[in-house]
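Slide 14.
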Amino acid sequence: MATETVISTPLPAGATAQAVIDNLHNHDLYIKTTSPQLISLKHVSGTPGLDQPCVYEITDKRPVGQTTFKITLTNVAEGVDAAIDGNAPTGPIIVRSKWRAHGQTLEEVVEIDSNIVTNKLIKGNVEKSHPGYHQAFFAEAVKA
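Slide 15: predicted structure.
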């Protein structure tokens, strides 16, 4: 059963929506920002910089070891769509998020689909960590 959460953060002074969108379209930056425990990153398919799905294989460090999963990033006019398909000992995990910078706001809609216990755990982690990811994209946008 899927669960959804929305994280909305106002852009700080000096950051434009277009600069944030440009950063979201930078897949290396996106992955390094949203996977702070990154061990390895491998481009699997698609052409970064074009509005087409690009698939990456990511290995990152977790409290119980390391995990490898695939993420698909698709650039859209106002941001990026991200889809993570992973497996955990508790079963499959699908996380779909839509990042949109419009006006003076960055809004992220996240849909999590796994078992009920894992849904709650992932939702809590998203709500705790993703506002920090928003701030990291803003910091890059202000530099631009």
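Speaker note: The domain at 2-143 is CATH 3.30.530.20 (Alpha-D-Glucose-1,6-Bisphosphate; Chain A, domain 4).
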